[in-house]
Request: fold
Amino acid sequence: MMRSTIGSPEGLMLLQFRIPWRQLLSSSCLLEDASIVLQLGFLGVLLLQFVIYVVESKCRGRKKSMVGEKCSVGAKVGLSYKLTLVCSILLLGAHFLELLMLQSNNSAHCALEVPNYASETMQVISWSISLILLYKILRDKQVRLPWIIRIWWISSFLISLASAAIDGNYIIINHESLKVQSYADALNLLASAFLLVISIRGRTGIVLDIPNGITAPLLNGKSEKHLEGKQDCPYGRATLLQLVTFAWLNPLFEVGIKKPLDQDEVPEVDFRDSAHYLSRSFDDCLEHVRKKDGTANPSIYKAIYIFAWKKAAINALFAVISASSSYVGPYLIDDFVNFLTEKKFRSLGSGYLLALGFLSAKMVETIAQRQWIFGARQLGLRLRAALISQIYQKGIVLSSKSRQSHSSGEIINYMSVDVQRITDFIWYLNTIWMLPIQISLAIFVLHTNLGLGSLVALVVTLIIMCGNIPLTRILKRFQTKIMESKDDRMKATSEVLRNMKTIKLQAWDSYFLDKLEILRQTEYNWLWKSLRLLALTAFIFWGSPAFISVMTFGGCVLMGIPLTAGRVLSALATFRMLQDPIFNLPDLLSVIAQGKVSADRIASFLQQDEVQSDAVLYHSCSDTEFSVEIDGGKFCWNTESGSATLDGINLRVKRGMKVAICGTVGSGKSSLLSCVLGEMSKQSGTVKISGTKAYVPQSPWILTGDIRENILFGNPYDSDKYNRTVEACALTKDLELFSAGDLTEIGERGINMSGGQKQRIQIARAVYQDADIYLLDDPFSAVDAHTGTQLFQDCLMGILKDKTILYVTHQVEFLPAADLILVMQNGRIAQAGSFEELLKHNVGFEVIVGAHNEALESILTVESSSRTFNHETDDGESNSEPNPNAEFPHTKQDSEHNLCVEIAEKEGRLVQDEEREKGSIGKEVYWSYLTIVKRGAFVPIILLAQSSFQALQIASNYWMAWACPTGNHEPVVGMHFILFVYVLLAIGSSLCVLIRATLLAITGLLTSEKLFSNMLHSIIRAPMAFFDSTPTGRILNRASTDQSVLDLELANKIGWCAFSIIQLLGTIAVMSQVAWEVFALFIPVTAICIWYQRYYIPTARELARLAGIQRAPILHHFAESLAGAATIRAFDQKCRFIDSNLCLIDNHSRPWFHNVSAMEWLSFRLNQLSNFVFAFSLVLLVTLPDGIIDPSIAGLAVTYGINLNVQQASVIWNICNADNKMISVERILQYSNIASEAPLVIEDHRPPGNWPDIGTIQFTNLKIRYAEHLPSVLKSITCTFPGKKKVGVVGRTGSGKSTLIQAIFRIVEPSEGSIIIDDVDITKIGLHDLRSRLSIIPQDPTMFEGTVRGNLDPLDQYSDYEIWEALDKCQLGDLMRGKPEKLETTVVENGENWSVGQRQLFCLGRALLKKSTVLVLDEATASVDSATDGTIQKIISQEFKDRTVVTIAHRIHTVIDSDLVLVLSDGRIAEYDTPAKLLEREDSFFSRLIREYSKRSQSFSSFSKIQS
Reply:
C-alpha cells in the first residue's frame, strides 16, 4: 500500500504513523498468547464448576433421582440447538485440521512453535469440552445456556475475528494467494459469529414438553404465567434465523396483502412486552429505588435505569458492532485503489479477498444495525407501557389539591406527548455510545491514511460538536416553552369541547375560537423560534463534512503530507461516515433536551400528593354497631389554605339508619360525604367505617358503554338481582323503549341520556353493588316529582331499607322519613335530630322547612281555589285514580339531545367506531399537504436547492479524485489550486443547504398552522350532534399527538423522502459512470425493491392506522377515569380500572410493535439487496482488465457505493415513514370538513337591534327529527308563548321538554314547521344573532377555568358595578366580598372549587347581566335548597317581570305561579292553559302532578312511621 510514496520524505514521515498499526496486525504470536490465556481461564472455571458439582451431588445423595422419577418432562430439540451443535463440530474439526497442518509445517505466521501448538491443542480440548457440555444441556433439558459457555463463545468469536483480520492483512501485504488456513479462518469466523448470536440470546433452543399438553420454553425451570398469550405471539416462539431475518412476520404479511388488516388479526405481543408484566416490573423498580434511597418519592430516572439497563446493554452491543463494522469500508478503500493501480503486479485473489472484506463488513453492519434499531423500538414500547400505566395509576389517586393544579388536558399531554418524547429518546440512546466509537474509528482510519492530518480533523470535529452546547441550551428552553404553551392550548381545548353545549347556547363560539387561536399563536411563535434554530443547525451540520475535509486537506498541504487519490477518497469516505455522528448529534441533543423536559414533567406529576390512605379506618361489621363514626373531625380540601372546610364534626350512624343531610348552598353537605369517603384531607380527628360502601355523586358520572355495563360496574350479572335493581330505580319503562334495551350504548359522559336517566342509572349502579353503606349526594334533584317519589319509596325505603344511607337532599318532603337529620351550616353540623325534634328547636331548620311550606301552600292555594269552581269533587276519587305512569308514558324522546331513536337505528350504538380510511393514502392527502401554502410554490425551490447541493458535493469529490495524483504521478494542477476549487464548491453546497433548511422550516410550519386552523374552525362550527357521537379523546388526539407530528416532524419526513432519492440518484450516477454494468444490475434490483415495498406497504399502513386509532381509547378511558376518580375509589374498583387501562395499552402496543417490526423486515431485505449490488460492483472492478477504468474514479465509485445500502434503505424507509406520518394529515383532514351549523350571521337577514322587544314565541306545526330516515321527536307542536308572560313546561322524563328548548336555540333544526319570535322566523337569521339575544340557565351548571369575572362576563361587556349588582341579586354578593381577590377569585377546571348550587347561582348571574327579553330555565334550580330556590324564583319574578320566561322544572311550585303551563307527552302537546284552568279539570295531567306532589309532601312523616 505504501510503495508509491515510500521513497519520498513525506512518505517516510507518513510511514512512521502507519507502521505501528501494521506491526500490531502482523504480530500473530500476540494472538496465540491471548488465545492460550483465554482458554486456560475457560478450562480453569470449568474445573472449578465440576468440583462444586461433585461436592453438591455427594450432599444431595439420591434425592435428585427420586424427584426425577416423579415427573417425566419430555423435550423437543429446536433448530438453533441443532445449528449450535453443527457449528461446534465444525470449529472442532477446523482446529484439529490446523493442528495437523502445523505438524506438516504447512501453516502459521508465528515463528515460535510452542505458542502455536499450545494454542491449537487447547482449542481442540476446549471445543471437545463444549460438545460434552452441549450433550449435558440436552440430557438435563436446560432451556438457558450456562453463563460459562456463553462467555467462551463470545471470546472465541473475538479470537476468530482477530485471526481472520491478521490472515487477510498478511495476504494483502505479502501479495499471497489464498491457502487452506485462510478458508479455515473464514469458516471459524462464520461458525463463531453464529455462536455469538446464540450466546447473546441465551436460549438453548430446547423446548420442554410438559405432560399436561402445554409445550413452551420455561425460564430456568420457573413456571410461566403467560403461556397462553405466548401461543398467539409469533415473535415469542420465533427461531434464531427468524429473529435475525424478521421472517416471523411473514404470516402477517400474507394476511395484510390480501385484505386490510383488522385489530383482531394482529398477533398478541410477547408476554415480556405486555402492559401487565411491564407495569409490575416498573413497580418493582420503583420499590427497589424507594428502599435503597429510603425516600417516599423515588427517582424516576433511577427506576427507568433499573427497568431498562439489560435490554439497553444488548442494544448497545449491537450498536457498537454496527458502528465498528461500518468503518471497515473506508479503511480498505486506499488498499483497493492501490490494488487497481498495481493490478498487473497483483493476483486477482487478493482483489477478491478485499471485495469479501467489504461485503462481510457490510453484512455484519446491516444485521447488527437492524437488531439494535428493533431492540431500541422494543425498549421504547416497554418504557411507554410502563410510564402510561404509572401516570394512570397516579391519576386516579390524586388528592383534590393536586387535581386542581393539573387539568385533564395537561395530564393527557403527559400521557400522549411526554411519554412519546421519552420513547424517542430511548431510540437515540444508542447514539450516545456509538458517537465516541464512530469518532475514534474515523480518526484511526484518517491517522492510518493522513498521519498528523487526522489531528486537524479531530480538532475541527470537536469544535463543531462543542458549538452545539449553546445551541442545545437554547433549544431546550424553546422545547420547554413549546410544551408549556401546548399544555395551555390543550387545557383550553379540552374545556371548550367539554362545555360545547353551553358555549353554543350562550353564543360564545367566536370568543372561545379567538381564545384558542391566541393560545395557538403563542405556541406557533415558540415553534417558529425552535424550527429556525433547527434550520441553522441543519446548515452547520450538512456543511460540516465539507468544512472538516477542507480544514484537514489544508492541514495536510501545510504539513507536507502528500494527498494521493487513494488517501483522499478514503478520507472523503471517512468524512461521509463522520457525517452520521455529526448529523445525529443535534438530533440527539434535541431529543435529550425534549426527553429531559418531559421526564421532569412526568417525575413532578408522579410526586404529587395523593388521597390520604389513612384518612378512613375500616373495621369489621362484627366489631361495632356503628356503620360510620366521626370523632372531632376537621377536614379541608386545600391543606395550604389554612382554613378548614369542615370543623368540629362528630357523628355516629348506627347500622341501618337513614341519615338526611340538608342545608343552604355551600354549607358543606357534599363535603361531609367526601370526608366519609376519605376524599378530603383530614387535619384532625378520626373517621371509622364498618362495611362496604357505594356512592352516588351529585353530578352524574356515566361511563361510555352500554347501560348494563354501567349498572353492573364490574360485578357478575345476576338476572334476578339486576331486574329488582332496575325496577327499584324506575328504569324498567326506559329500557323497554330502547330497541337494544339495557344494551343501548351510552355516549361520552352520558350525553344521549336525560339528566334524570343518568341519575337513575348511577343510583342503580350503587344499588346493584349491594353495599353496606350508601352515600347519596342529592340523588333526587335531576328527576321529576313522581319519579323522585318512586325512587324514595322503592329504592331508599324499599330495596335498601336495611342498609345504612346518608343522603343529601334539598327536598324537604324526603326529610321526615329519616332517622337522623343533619343541618349543615358554615362547615359544621349546626343541628342534628329527627324531623319533629328539629322543628321544636326552631333554629335554622325552619328556614328550609318554611321555604318548602311556602311553596307547598302556594300549590295548595292554587289547587283549592281551582277546586271551588269544580263542584263535582269526590273525596274517594283520588283513591281510584289511575297511576300517573299511564298519563305520562315514557317516550322514545330523550330530554337532553334526543339521540335515543338514532341509537335504536344503529342497534344500540351511538358512538360508532372511529373512522378509519382503508387502502393507500390518497394522492389528494399528499396534494393537500404540499399545496395548502402558496399552492406549493416553495416545493420546487426546496427540491432545486437540495439537487444543487448534491450536484456540488459530487462535483467537489469528483474534482478531488481527478486532480489528486495516483501512484508516482504528479498532480494535474497545484495543490493550492485544487484546494481553492474544493473550498468554493463546498461553500456553494453549504449555501444550498441553508436555503433548503430555511424554506423547509417555513413551509412546514405554515402548512401545519393552516391545517390546524381549518380543523379548529371546522370543529367549533360543528353541530352538537357531532360532539354527542364523538368522544372528546378522538378530537384531543388529533389536536395533540397528530398536530405535534405536523408541527415538528412531517415536513422533515417528507423532505427526507425527496433528499434521499436525490442522494441515491447521485450515487447511482457516479457508480454507473465507472461501470455501466452496475446500472444494468440496478434495474432488476430496483424492481425487487419496489416489489418488496408494495408487498410491505398495505400491511404497514393498516398497522399504523390501527395504532393511531387504538391510541385514542387509552386517552378517552383516562379522561373518564379522572372525571370519576372519586366514584372509582368509593367502589374500590381501582384494580379493575387499572387492568382496563393495561388492556387498552396492549391493544395499542400490538399494531405499533408489529408496525416497527415490519419496518425492520423491509429494511433488512433492502439492505441485503444493496450489499449484493455493492459486492457485484466490487467484483466487476476487480475482474475488469487493467487500464479500462481510472483507479481514482473507481475509488470514488466505491466511496459512494459504501453508503449504497444505507441510501437505498433510507429511500424506502423514508417513503414508508412519511406514508405512516401522513396518516396524521389524513386524520386532521377528516375533522376539517365536518358539516357545519347554519351561519353565525346572515347579513341579508339580520334582526332589528332591539329584537326581541316583546318576546312572543310562536310554534307552528313544529316537527323535529335527527335524520331523514328517523321518526319525528317533536310532533306537530303548534302553540304560542305570549310575550312578557311566564310559561311553565312540564312532563315526564323523556317527553321532549329539553328538545323544545333546543329547538328555540336551534341546537337542533326543525324538519318541518317554524318558530317565530316577534315576527322573525328564527331559521332565517344567523345563529349568533339568535342565541346572543336569548338567555338560558341550563340544567348542568357550567363554569370555565379562570376568574369569577371572566365566567360572568367573558366578552367583557359589563362594568364592575353591573357585575356586583348581579351577584347581589343572585345571593352571591356577600360571599364574593368575603374573598380577598373579589371578582378575580379563581375558578378551577369545571368550577370544582364551588359547590353545584353556587355554580347554578353564577349561571343565574349571567342571565341577570344579559337582561334578554326571553329567558329559558332548564331545571335551573335542581341543585339548590328550597330556601335558595324560593329566593331565586322571587328574583326571577322581579327582574324578569316584563320579560318572557320559559321554565322547565321538576319542582311543581316553580311552575305553579306561571301564567301558562304546557304539558308535553310523547312529543306532543297534551295540555296548554293557565294553571287554574288546568286544575279545574280533575282528569288533567297537570292536576294529577299537583296532587301527587302535595300528597307526597304532606304524607311523608306518616310514611316514615309506617316503615318503622
Observations:
- The chain is about 65% helix and 10% strand.
- The mean pLDDT is 78.
- The first strand starts at residue 74 and ends at 77.
